[in-house]
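User: quick one, sequence for these tokens?
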């Protein structure tokens, strides 16, 4: 299957997934849901993926990527139609749970599919394109939903974005040349005692040191990204920025991530994947140290652009390394383990750093994250 067709599917599903988070928040406010319960609502997107991700990876290793992608995409579409037919707060909880659970089967499948396209030399470029498609969907989805809510209302906008995952389902269901879509490859990962198919997933992480480093590094980078989206609006309000100025700062961060992913294949070819990943983590660590001392909006935009460059290339590179370092026939399981760790991070990060910020102030939040990113870079340097 062409990588560009896969990118189209990524944009369609990411558009719907990110857009649904905008609608569910605004719709719940309209229905009178409290802020505390809105937090629970958003957490449901990550709860079931955290529980099901490893199982999804094992299932994909056994059955292939085709039907898990079809079923996962149909599940996302079904979840998004529920608030149209039954517009209530309870339905929103069901929607969040169903979309999150279905998304993990699609997401682990598409990552495995991208890793299997082309040769090992194409993998960095393919995962870089995957990152670009994710960024595109993440930008377009909220934009479409914002205009949709204003013109058609929350329920109809849900119905509108539910059509996009069905495009993915139709493409995969009709891709008969893929057969089962099962990925059969000889892993170029280092061999370890965990290569046996019977070993538990977390033993796979413990015994395979290169894979363990990639998994930990990926989770650390994601924590850095989550912290930015969670705490930058709080910091911006603290230094007196308006809502539109805070939005510009967040947009600059996203633009930087897009830019670095465009040039990432060439940079990796020049320096090597591990060196680029280590350098990006140290750059992000230094910029996080600087953030709490900056109060001028233009300077903050420059620093956040640099931060976006660092964290932006970290996700595709760690994803590519996890695929490469997984034992033969267990790439889906390794990607599922990654999804479990990442979704745990999605749930814990706002709670942990929110508590730190409440107890000690804003600056220690950025300092702690800087130390964590630097520690992740040191872990990657270990041989």
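Assistant:
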């Amino acid at each position: 299957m062409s990588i560009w067709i896969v990118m189209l599917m990524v944009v369609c599903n990411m558009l719907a997934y990110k857009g649904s988070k905008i609608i569910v928040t605004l719709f719940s406010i309209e229905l009178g849901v409290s802020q505390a319960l809105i937090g629970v609502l958003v957490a449901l997107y990550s709860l079931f993926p955290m529980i099901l991700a490893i199982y999804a990876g094992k299932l994909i290793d056994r059955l292939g990527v085709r039907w898990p992608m079809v079923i996962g995409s149909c599940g996302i579409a079904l979840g998004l139609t529920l608030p149209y037919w039954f517009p209530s707060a309870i339905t929103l909880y069901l929607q969040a749970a169903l979309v999150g659970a279905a998304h993990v089967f699609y997401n682990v499948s598409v990552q495995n599919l991208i890793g299997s396209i082309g040769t090992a030399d194409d993998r960095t470029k393919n995962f870089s394109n995957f990152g670009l498609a994710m960024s595109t969907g993440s930008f377009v989805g909220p934009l479409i939903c914002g205009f949709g809510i204003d013109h058609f209302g929350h329920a109809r906008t849900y119905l509108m974005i539910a059509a996009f995952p069905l495009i993915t389902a139709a493409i995969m269901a009709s891709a008969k040349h893929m057969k089962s879509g099962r990925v059969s490859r000889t892993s170029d990962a280092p061999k370890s005692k965990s290569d046996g198919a019977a070993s538990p997933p977390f033993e796979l992480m413990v015994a395979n040191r290169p894979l363990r480093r990639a998994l930990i590094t990926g989770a650390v980078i994601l924590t850095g990204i989550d912290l930015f989206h969670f705490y930058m609006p709080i910091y911006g309000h603290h230094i007196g920025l308006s809502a539109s100025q805070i939005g510009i700062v967040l947009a600059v961060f996203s633009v930087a991530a897009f830019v670095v992913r465009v040039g990432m294949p060439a940079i990796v070819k020049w320096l090597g994947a591990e060196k680029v990943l280590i350098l990006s983590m140290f750059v992000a660590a230094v910029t996080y140290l600087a953030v709490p001392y900056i109060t001028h909006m233009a300077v903050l935009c420059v620093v956040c652009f640099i931060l976006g460059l660092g964290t932006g290339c970290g996700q595709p590179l760690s994803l590519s390394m996890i695929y490469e370092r997984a034992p033969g026939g267990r790439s889906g399981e390794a990607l599922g383990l990654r999804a479990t760790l990442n979704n745990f991070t999605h749930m814990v990060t706002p709670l942990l750093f929110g508590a730190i910020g409440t107890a000690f102030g804003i600056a220690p939040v950025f300092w702690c994250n800087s130390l964590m990113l630097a520690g992740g870079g040191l872990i990657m340097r270990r041989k």
